[in-house]
Amino acid sequence: MGDFSQILNNSERIIPNLQTEFKQFKFLDSEGFVPANVTYTAYYTKDKIKIYLTGLPTTPNSRRIKPVVESDNFVKYQRLKNLSRENYPKPNQIAPSKSDYDVGEFIRYFCKKGNGEGDIFEISKETFDSQSTLYLYYELSWVITGKRVDVRQKNISTLNALSLDLPRIKNYLDPLQYWKPNRNSVDDVQKKLSFLKS
Fold first, then answer.
1. pTM greater than 0.90
2. Residue 87 in domain
3. In which domain, by residue range, is 49 found?
4. What is the pLDDT of residues 149-167, one digit of tens each?
5. DSSP secondary structure, the chain, as one string
6. Does 193 fall in a domain?
């Protein structure tokens, strides 16, 4: 925070004429203890910060002081609020890229609330990499090319393994989601024929 006039102009609440107690405060500029019975003022700023200055709002040459132990619930709440600002994950369904199809599989990321409430949902890798402590996170390898029967079986096995932690995952994912048959394979021809019929 800048000079005294800035603090004064930015304050939405001021409590003047308070008295320091023995070893209650330290001077911000020297780290020395403020003597007992020094008059000070508490300023609650518009950006929700509490500042302590010696003297009254009209006193020239006020010095900034800080409590040795913060006992004000307002300040404790502000600190707690800042600590609890987590990055909450947002649903984000990621489709496989061409290079994923060349490889034949890709990694998918999911999460759910740590308290068990709510459903599982898909997230991006970026969200997975910056995890919130309030959620549980999962990754799985999802097969997207090959024989239809093999792809289906591999993905069902993956879902079965994950369903120990996430029983509803089988309802959420189709084992053939994003599957594409190999070009000119029997599956490819059958898929094309099914499009022609519909």
1. no
2. no
3. 4-70
4. 999 999 999 999 988 888 8
5. ---HHHHHHTEEEEEEEEE--TTSEEETTT-PBPPTT-EEEEEEETTS-EEEEES-TT-TT--EEEESS---HHHHHHHHHHHT--------PPPP-HHHHHHTEEEEEEEEETTS-S--EEE-HHHHHS--TTEEEEEEEEE-BS-HHHHHHHHHHHHHHHTTT-TTHHHH--TTTT-BPPTTSHHHHHHHHHHHH-
6. no
